[in-house]
Structure formats: structure tokens, C-alpha cells
Design brief:
Blueprint (H helix, E strand, L loop, with lengths): L12 H9 L7 H11 L4 E4 L6 H12 L9 E4 L3 H14 L8 E4 L5 H8 L5 E4 L1 H10 L9 E4 L2 H6 L3 H10 L5 E6 L4 H10 L4 E4 L10 E7 L5 H11 L5 E4 L3 H13 L4 E4 L5 H13 L4 E4 L1 H4 L9 E4 L8 H6 L9 E7 L3 H12 L4 E2 L5 H22 L3 H11 L5 H17 L11 H16 L20 H4 L14 H8 L12
């Protein structure tokens, strides 16, 4: 379908200015189709996946149609989780930045209700809330429905799955018949269509799921690992790819807490997010994740629903999702705002069947990857160190350190030995958090590797003992990648052949380039 610039959608100058400051130029398909229909007063059934820009698709027209001369609630937006309520509210605030006399209020459980009472007395025009807390205010008389013009249901399928159907029906039945009802959902089961048939008037159905906006920007991989090796595999992947902001999904709250403890012990800035945390804890964690002070966020599916951070570099399915459709919801948290992203799924034993089912259900194909070895990590770190020291050398002011080096050379050490020793100290310090004896069993690969080596020997080929990880990351490299400590062909630590090798070839910075 044709895309439009926001200037072509008949929006107010104030709205165009706010959108421009947010960095958006071209409307997404869901925005292109939804905004004109909503502004024309039509009811909407929007079928759109996470990451397609659907929040702005209903927020923009809602803000444009609010009458700032009327000081009462005109629009209610219902969301399944507190995190999503906060995210949607923030989006509204950014978009209404230049709309004078307009305000939005977040309503959710876990926050002091007295504070919400005081905020409601200031007569906000827009309420964004969870169904449960919204119903609570309706019963207390602090939210009145008799003047509501717009009701928006965001993530409708999730709200029904979480048992909010009665609350939703109570809210819809209490609003005027002339209201406009907008609904967005990632899936459209019969229960949603029947519900909307009761409460909508000739809705326009908009389906943009076929666009798959995020899919081309997300590289999707899976790794076969033992359950006990998952923390080590996660740490190695994060370090190997120098990932600065990662989202990790676990299926249980206890697994979230356990993994966070492990990551913190290893020196990572990690925090967890799950249903047992109070709202203050959630807001603190999400604030840290948005600012980057929390580098790794470990979450359950429900808690992860409201996470909308554009700079997430990678999503890790530490546990495969229990619901196949949750896979797309999870990986949609990366590759946003025009940026690329990567998704890694850990598969244990017979879970390969689950993975195949997920691929079929979501029409995706995951590429196989192998866990980086300690040597692979050293290659990446050497490159990082090299990139770090280049500007230091260029800047100069090293006289003091040259003098210290010369003093050490008086002790019968040459400059190459000193540099090599310092590099070793640096690498050893960075490797302290890793378990170099991690074993990941993969007998198929062991057999495959042995057969491959036999063929090379039979054909007179040279058996190198270990393939170059940078050039052959996608192949089965067998026992060496999964072995513990002693590897075939491994040199003594005093041997300089590793550095001689580096002189002959440039370290690969993008190991996936020559995948097969």
C-alpha cells in the first residue's frame, strides 16, 4: 500500500510539530489507514502486530478530536498491563506537547489511589488505564462515563486472555451510544469479533499483519544448549556481539530472579521485571532500562508487554515461549524505529519440536548458531582493545608511560613481551566472569565433525583441529566449539602463534557475513 507523510493526513500544525520532534516523517501502514478513518468518526477493528506504530495510530486522531474547551473525560484508553499504560500515556504526552489546555492521566493498580483521586479532580480529557483500576474508579464515582466520546481498546486479545472481559463490557455498556469505539489486537479470535459486533457500529476492519514491518530488520537465530549452560551461553553472546541493551524473556518469575542474580554476579548491569514487583519497583527498573543504566532486562511475557524502547539491540528467548504467538510479540521489541535487531532462542533437547512449531505458526525460519568459544571472545576483545588504544596513541601524552616501559626493558624484557603481558592481563581480567569449562553436549555435531575430519585425512587434506569461527560461524564446527578446557590443536599459553595468526588475517568484526 502507499505510505503517506504526516503532512498529507490533514493534521494540525501543533500535531505536525510534535510528530516532527519525535523524529517521524512517514506514517506506517496502520497509521496511514487508521488515522483518516478515526478522524472521520468511524469505529475501527485494527489487526496489527507489536512494533507497527499502532499507539500513534489511535493517539494522534484522538488528540486531534478532543475538545480542549470541555473540562471532563472525553476518551478512555484501556490497556492490559501497567507497563503498557505508562508507555501509551507517555506517547500521548509527547504528541500533545503543543496542544494547550489538554491533559492525559494514567490509571493503574499499584499506584496510590488517593494520588489518582487528586489528579482526576483536575479534569483530564484523556484517561489511559488498566480495566481493573478503571472499574474501581467508576464504582467510586471518580470516573464518570456519561460524556465519553471515545473508547480505545489496545491489545484487546491480551486483555481478554487476562480475564478482563466483564470489566471491558461494563465500561462499554456504561458509555453513551454515540461514542466511537476503536479496537486494536495482534490476533482476532472469534471472542473478540463477537464482542465488537455488540459494541461497534459498522466498523472498518484494517489488517496490516501481512506487511510484517519488523521482520526484515530482525535476524533470527537459535542455539542448542543444555539448560545448565544457558547463563554461560547468554553471557558469551552478549560479550561477543558487544550488545549494550538486551531484553531476555523467561517463562517464570523465579527464573527471572535467578537469572538476574547470576548476571549481577558476573558483573552485568541486569534487572528483572515480573508480576510480583510493586509499581515503584517496576518504574525504577524501566527508567533504568530506558536510560541505559540497566543493560540487560530480564522479564516474563506479561511484564514485557509494555516495554517499548527503541534502542534494544537483541532479544533473547532464554525459555521458548509457552504460546507460539508470543514469539512475535517478544522479538518485536527489537528492530524498532528503523534500526536493525537480532533475536536468539535457546533450545534444549526435545524443544526442537517446539521450535519447529513456532516457525510454522509464525511463518519464520530461524538460522542455527553456535555458542562462541573463549578464543572467539578473545578475538573480539582484542579488536575492541585495538580500537580503544588507537585514539590514545593519536592523542599522544604518553611520555610518562614510555619512560616506565623503558625502565621495565632494563630488566631484560623487550617491548613486545611487555605489551603481550599487559594484553594477557587485560583479557584474563575480562574472562574472570566466564566459565571456560562450560560443556554443551551436541553428539550430532561431534559425529559430524569426526566424519568431516576423517574425510579430510582420507583425501590428504590438512586437519587444522579448529575452524576459523569468524569465517565459518554458521557451520557445524563440532567438538571444539563445545569442549571444555583442552581443545585439539590448542597451543601452550607461551606460544606466540596466536599473534602470528593475527598478523596474517584481519579479525572479523561481523562473523555472520559468510554464512552458509
Amino acid at each position: 500500500m502507499n505510505k503517506f507523510k504526516f503532512e498529507e493526513l490533514n493534521l494540525s500544525p501543533a500535531m505536525i510539530k510534535a510528530i516532527s520532534e519525535m523524529g517521524f516523517e512517514e506514517a506506517t501502514p496502520i497509521q496511514t489507514e487508521s488515522i483518516p478513518s478515526i478522524m472521520a468518526g468511524k469505529d475501527i477493528i485494527g489487526h496489527a502486530q507489536t512494533g507497527t506504530g499502532k499507539t500513534a495510530a489511535f493517539a494522534i486522531p484522538t488528540i486531534e478530536m478532543i475538545d480542549t474547551n470541555l473540562n471532563f473525560i472525553q476518551a478512555i484508553v484501556l490497556c492490559p498491563t501497567r507497563e503498557l499504560v505508562v508507555q501509551v500515556t507517555e506517547e500521548f504526552r509527547k504528541l500533545m506537547r503543543y496542544k494547550e489546555g489538554m491533559s492525559v492521566l494514567a490509571i493503574y493498580g499499584g499506584q496510590e489511589i488517593d494520588r489518582q483521586f487528586k489528579a482526576l479532580k483536575k479534569n483530564p480529557q484523556i484517561i489511559v488505564g488498566t480495566p481493573g483500576r478503571t472499574i474501581d474508579h467508576i464504582h467510586r464515582g471518580s470516573i464518570k462515563l456519561d460524556s465519553i466520546k471515545f473508547v480505545i481498546l489496545d491489545e484487546a486479545d491480551e486483555m481478554l486472555d487476562m480475564g478482563f472481559r466483564e470489566d471491558i463490557e461494563l465500561i462499554l455498556s456504561g458509555t453513551p451510544e454515540y461514542r466511537q469505539t476503536v479496537m486494536f489486537s495482534a490476533t482476532l479470535p472469534d471472542i473478540i469479533l463477537k464482542l465488537m459486533k455488540r459494541y461497534q457500529k459498522n466498523p472498518v476492519r484494517i489488517d496490516v499483519t501481512h506487511h510484517k514491518l519488523h521482520a526484515p530488520k530482525i535476524d533470527q537465530f537459535y542455539l542448542e544448549v543444555n539448560a545448565s549452560a544457558k547463563p554461560e551461553a547468554l553471557a558469551r553472546l552478549i560479550d561477543y556481539h558487544s550488545i549494550k541493551l538486551a531484553l531476555v524473556f523467561c517463562n517464570t518469575r523465579s527464573q527471572v530472579d535467578e537469572l538476574v542474580d547470576i548476571l549481577k554476579t558476573r558483573g552485568y548491569f541486569a534487572e528483572g521485571l515480573h508480576g510480583e514487583m510493586n509499581q515503584r519497583q517496576r518504574e525504577k527498573v524501566m527508567g533504568g532500562f530506558r536510560t541505559g543504566s540497566v543493560e540487560i532486562l530480564v522479564a516474563t511475557d506479561v511484564a514485557g508487554r509494555g516495554i517499548d524502547v527503541n534502542d534494544i539491540e537483541a532479544v533473547f528467548n532464554y525459555d521458548l515461549p509457552q504460546d507460539d504467538e508470543d514469539y512475535i510479540h517478544r522479538i518485536g521489541r527489537t528492530g524498532r524505529a528503523g534500526k536493525s535487531g537480532a533475536a536468539y532462542s535457546f533450545v534444549t533437547g526435545r524443544q526442537m519440536y517446539n521450535l519447529q512449531r513456532i516457525e510454522k505458526a509464525n511463518k519464520v525460519k530461524l538460522q542455527k548458531r553456535l555458542v562462541p568459544t573463549m578464543e572467539d571472545l578473545d578475538e573480539t576483545r582484542i579488536q575492541t582493545i585495538f580500537e580503544t588504544i588507537k585514539p590514545i596513541i593519536a592523542k599522544g601524552s604518553l611520555k610518562k608511560y614510555r619512560n616506565l616501559t623503558e625502565e621495565m626493558m632494563c630488566e631484560d624484557y623487550n617491548s613486545m613481551d611487555i605489551a603481550a603481558a599487559l594484553l594477557k592481563i587485560t583479557l584474563d581480567a575480562r574472562n574472570d566472569g566466564f566459565d571456560s569449562s562450560m560443556v554443551i553436549e551436541d553428539r550430532y555435531h561431534e559425529r559430524s565433525d569426526r566424519n568431516d575430519r576423517s574425510k579430510r585425512r582420507d583425501s590428504g587434506g590438512r586437519d587444522s583441529g579448529r575452524r576459523d569461527y569468524g569465517r565459518d560461524y554458521g557451520r557445524d564446527s563440532g567438538r571444539d566449539r563445545y569442549s571444555s578446557g583442552k581443545k585439539e590443536g590448542k597451543k601452550d599459553s607461551k606460544d606466540n602463534s596466536f599473534f602470528e595468526k593475527k598478523k596474517k588475517k584481519k579479525i572479523e568484526s561481523k562473523p555472520y557475513k559468510n554464512n552458509r
